[in-house]
Amino acid sequence: MLRRVPLDDVRIGMYVHAMEGSWLRHPFWRKRFLLDSEHDLKALLDSDIPGIIIDDERGAAPAPKPAPTPIVAARRQPPVHRLAEEEFRARPRAAFRTRPASSSAASRWPPGRS
Fold first, then answer.
1. In what order do the strands lie in the sheet with 2-6?
2. Nearby residues of 87 by Cβ (< 8 Å), 6 or more positions away
3. Residue 18's CB: how many other CB atoms inside 10 A?
4. Is 81 buried (19+), middle (13-18) or exposed (0-12) by CB count in 10 A?
5. CB 3 within 8 Å of CB 54
6. Using an 8 Å Cβ cutoff, are 25 and 49 in contact?
7. Domain for residue 103, yes or no?
8. Is residue 48 part of a domain?
9. How many CB atoms lie within 10 A of CB 54?
10. Does any domain span residue 69?
11. How far apart are the first and last CA of the chain?
12. Domain-located, residue 92
């Protein structure tokens, strides 16, 4: 069975069926071979290809990845403090009003005019 494997998961014993990317980006003359030496593995890892296609039936399969550990403890949400309706209405209304525009400031424009 053909599988795509990133270069981080490549190991000795895998049968390389194809290499992703241009043939100019790797140092091998052949595109199908058994990866059986440290020298070839280092050359493959140093190449500028993103990954390889391996054949599980002709070589080693990639190592299974460990399952992610589930998060057991749920995070508690902090309580939301809201003003009660009575407290909201008890506030002075002046706190919610904006100051009216001063008409005297407009009469002093441009500066120096009296």
1. 2-6, 51-55, 15-19, 33-34
2. none
3. 13
4. exposed
5. yes
6. yes
7. no
8. yes
9. 25
10. no
11. 93
12. no
3 state DSSP class of 18 = strand
The per-residue pLDDT for range 56-114, each reduced to its tens digit, is 889 888 888 787 777 666 667 766 666 666 676 666 665 555 555 555 555 556 666 55
Instruction: Name the token pair of 33.
Output: 């071979």
pTM strictly above 0.70:
no
> From the centroid of its chain, how far is CA 1?
30
Give bridge partners of residue 4 from the DSSP assignment. Answer: 53
Tokens 């981080």 -> residue: 8
**Helix or strand run (H / E) with residue 105:** helix 103-107
Domain count, the chain: 1
